[in-house]
Protein 1
Amino acid sequence: MDWNLDDGRPIWTQLAEQLTRLIVSGEYPPGSRLPAVRELAEDAGVNPNTMQRALAQLEADGLAASNRTAGRMVTEDRVVIDTRRRDLAKKHIAEYLTAMAQLGYSAAEAAELLREGEK
Amino acid sequence: MDWNLDDGRPIWTQLAEQLTRLIVSGEYPPGSRLPAVRELAEDAGVNPNTMQRALAQLEADGLAASNRTAGRMVTEDRVVIDTRRRDLAKKHIAEYLTAMAQLGYSAAEAAELLREGEK
DNA sequence: ATTATTGTATTATTCAGTTAATACAATAAT
DNA sequence: ATTATTGTATTAACTGAATAATACAATAAT
């Protein structure tokens, strides 16, 4: 997969976000097993330590838990996952509106431009 | 003013973005004089070197130019400014749609949620 | 003419993020 | 029982971002 590690923010932060997206979008279903730390790290082209840090964040968020040698599992709690999905959506909506407002676009204009696709 | 230096990205990047917003939104009109580097730095609570770096970016973008001791002026070229404003808007639109798509929301849903405000 | 203010450049230091190279304990797989 | 794989921890080194402390040249203001 394409990990898209572009902007200047810490890599482990971006990795955590990416993993979170994979979970809330269902590509890593509830209760499923995540790839091993070393495997994920190689796939993303980062140091295992960096990936470990990202995964630690996922655990802190309650999205995953590790069973030591049995690997790491996505939480079975769909409420946690869905809540996270909705919260992220709300965050993106707010950020979009704020960004557009700072450019001088009203909320109505911001919504209208979305419908047009671009311009 | 509130500079909102929050996320983990380099501060000079965020400063440049903030200054750009002030210009494209018209708070720093075309041809007007920008505050001195040291003044801006103090206001933002950052080192003058860091603010200088942000301003260098603005010049590279053609949004401002320095007249040595006469201070630094916003470009008079309204086309440059307006183009930049539109490009930033397009970027935010694309980013919003991408972010929502990664969460599993269609473009229609993303637009709908905007209209509802939240949920 | 003198002074203050401007943008700019330089050097050193600190700090967080990242990589690297291991090491260890637990346990699934054989 | 042995081996391989798992998550985890540790230490060192490197890098870029940021701060700090200056310094300098140009010129507007006095």
Note: The beta strands of chain B are 33-34, 64-66, 72-74.
Protein 2
Amino acid sequence: MQISSRFTIAVHILECIKYFEGRNAITSEFLAGSIGVNAVIIRRIISQLKAAGLVSVERGKTGIISARNLDDVTLYDVYSAVEAVSSDGLFHFHANPNPKCPVGKNIHDILDGTLREIQNSFEERMRSVKLKDLKPVTLDITE
Amino acid sequence: MQISSRFTIAVHILECIKYFEGRNAITSEFLAGSIGVNAVIIRRIISQLKAAGLVSVERGKTGIISARNLDDVTLYDVYSAVEAVSSDGLFHFHANPNPKCPVGKNIHDILDGTLREIQNSFEERMRSVKLKDLKPVTLDITE
DNA sequence: GGCAATGTAACACAAAATATTACAGGAGGA
DNA sequence: TCCTCCTGTAATATTTTGTGTTACATTGCC
């Protein structure tokens, strides 16, 4: 399977905040327009980003979403905020290997450590990229 | 989301072949018993492994699945055989970013390269592990 | 020919992601 | 104060993917 689009949507949201903060009122409706999904989807993801401490929302104030230190947010911060993988791990294991089979009995022993290492290096790779490392948004001077 | 259990099932299958080849008749029914899933699931995955050149099936011969050079098969070989990720990539991108928004217009430019690199290093990590690098199956001398 | 196993189609079901409508509640501004 | 805008969240629907199951044609050994 693929990592859900919640992740790219969340990065898109943060890039919008970086770009528009102070210039436009950033509402879920506004973000939905830029991203091309329903505003409720945006609000749910915003909730997750808020829970992770990446953004904060001043309620009632005609739609302002303010953030903090977004440049140093890593892709892992975003990923772990919106993806519910943490509990089960990246790899989905078949649930009922047969303990009466010598292979079935040992399959977790055979695989768990290595799969965990692969997951760890994947997450480490995500941690090594900060938002400021991404290609900057090309400024459109005609607008 | 998670990588589907097809991957761990496929590794389990290959470990069974390594362990039982020459000792037991290896049928989809037999494998289903060790792995704890339906035999049709096994047959479907066997088809994929066969298409990837990892195993071969001598049909009709009272259930024998023979393989080749399994020790040097990498986890990536198995992963790419059973996971349909190749076309879309590891990350699912939201489909309709707004080209009229400066961020929406550039979001692919901002992210695609970096996400591709992360996917590449993930796959490279999988390529670095061969089946013979996994923990060996503990031999049960009482059987 | 009979038997055992594969290869696949067809269908059912569950889980997750995504979309949509609805509405209660907070806060600023007239 | 009242109006309006926006958030937060529930409820529900739809789609997609993964998984389970039954059925059956086909293959090749005995």
Note: The radius of gyration of chain A is 20 Å.
